[in-house]
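Example record

One chain of 740 residues, shown exactly as stored in the release files.
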Amino acid sequence: MFISKKAVTVLLILALAASMIAPLTAVKAQSNSLFSVTIIAPGNANLLRRQWSQVFASNLQQLGIDAKVVYLDWTSVYDRVFTPSPEYVGKTYGQGGYDIMAVGWTPGLLPEPRQLYYGGDPAFFAPSGQNYYLWNNAESNDLLDRFITSTDNDEKASVLKQWQQLYFNEMPASQIMYQKAPVVVNPAIGNLYTPPTGGEGWLYFNAQPYPQLLTRSDGKTSITYCATGEISDLNPPESNSWYDTIVWMPIFNGLAEAWPTLSGLSDLEVPSLLTSWSHSADGFTWTFNCRHGVTWHDGEPFTADDVVFSLWALMNPDTASQFVGYYQSVYGDNVKFTYSDGTSATLGSGSRQGTITATDQYTVTVHLPVLANGKPYGYFEPYLLAFTNNIIPKHILENIAPADWATSPFNTGQGSMTIKGKTYTGPVGTGPYKWVSYDPVAQVVHLERYDNFWNATGLKNMGLFQIKDYYIRFIADKTSALAALKNGEVDMLDYNYQMQTDVPSIDPSWGRVINLDGVGRQEFGYNMRHPVFGTGVDTPLGKSDPSRAAEAAKYVRIAFDYAIPRDLIINNLLAGYGDPGATPMLPTQPFYDNSITARPYDLSQAKHYLELAGYTIPTSVGLTTINLQGILNDTSGAPKPNTAVTLFETTDNSTFPNSLKTVASTTTDVNGFFSFTVSPTEPGTYYYYLRDDSTGEYIFLGSYTVSGAIDITLLLAIVAVVIIVVIIVALIFVRRRRKK
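Predicted structure tokens for this chain:
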């Protein structure tokens, strides 16, 4: 047995862990926690998210909270958090729901916080809406209504700044950071464009991949985009994942689309499936003029009926759409959909009536209901009214029961189906690229240039549309993805690989590094129906005074916010790529309020807010909690998945390995990642070793010096004894003097 120098690349948060090793008020570990909480760190795509979740949990443990982190696949996350069965909505993790969710969000072109935070309509809540926090705040709802019905940008800015301040005070989620990140591309790739904010390629890697505009200087006509995630859904109404988007965006068109050179509020979109649009002076009536001569990838013509059908699908909970609440707020909760042949269907039975009508094969007329304050939806843009690239084929999907959409080849890209004599093996759109195949073993999607694309001639006249074959390849491990780029197997690496610390090792001959700004945000989202930090009914204050339960819950959430070491996470895990986050608005978006800054990492403040919620913080909290985590590699540097490892501890390093004591055992995950949390109960210097149980090799992980302090209760007792002794001695002395 020996100490290996090659067997592991340890991603330990050394400075971060060291900063947390501060003497608290006791030596022994706490036996009774304030309450329990489980943090979900989803998927295998972002290993760093697992690490900062563990850091957060360790800080909560130092406050006396029984906190743990679980790693769940995305299917389990959707079942618990985003699209749970009705009986699990709002339930805690122990009841089949969730407590705290670590997740990242990719920004839109324009801020629209109603999608995630509006609670004035139950349809916005999961599973039919995206408000997975289940936050329902009357003041927030009113501000968001005012924001979305206003047509004046100054008013929008004022209202949204008020909302950001309210959000920061109420804290339904703790924003960890605004991410900056590098992407790495083959140096031959060109035409990524530089928008006004975000940097070169921002739109491509954040909102709308556009391979039809890319060029290559090496003469090749294919490009492979490499991502770390996995496919969930390929049918736009059912999809809410960036990793789906990079597949289906080139397949489908929207009514209008963002163009890489556009500038934002004043220059948002160019026509796509529409040639023009207009609205009445009061904003209640819209007219969409559809483009002639567009065909679906199976050769069938695109018509106004497809627009009507697509909006019906987005608003229909039977299709598993997660946008039902949002679209109902725009178009109504009692909407009549009428097709060009006069047939119709109605969704909902509410009081907000609207109509969406194909008045002929190429015209759609929309009548919007009042949304709030006597006004309709106020973002007068088809890009937002139908989002982007969401128009789907009526002639195919009307032949499949909505309940079966999720399992159909149209959505999964696997298997085949026959409809009206035609066989389909995947999604069908009107976009510049058509579906070819998906190899689930190799994790490769193949798209092919659609030469009958409505804008093919225009693009080719501009020297574009050069890429004939577009591949999307999913590789979970970052090291493997970088190797694939280096040897020419892939051409573009998604920023979600978190390559911040890898930039110095990338040779310009095979990888061009592009630094993006405002690529997203990472957060800890809170279940706002949790009895402790959601409703507050189980807090001490909430129990003693039910009228203050919500106030107590807010105090707990603010305590959580103070327990996040944002700067240390950014500097130690992300090599400085990012800024501490305070609200869901990104610095690159319009209406961002830069006067609001993130709360600092301060466990004393966290303790204070827990005390405001009625908790008595025990003085017998352990000295510290140390996170030991990393990636186990073999001698060639490749990660070792599913390998048993054991953690050892010693306070006498001079007699290693004889003095080692077993602390815990675990198994690395599919990416070789391991994690341990240890809590020393005595002051001293502790040395930690990891043993690769498959080889018997030991790897030194680090040493930590822990300082102890006397228990306050013990200190008070000692002081009391000293005082008593002094008094007794004084009395004896006084008596003796009197006898003299």
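Notes: Residues 26 and 714 are 9 Å apart (CA to CA).
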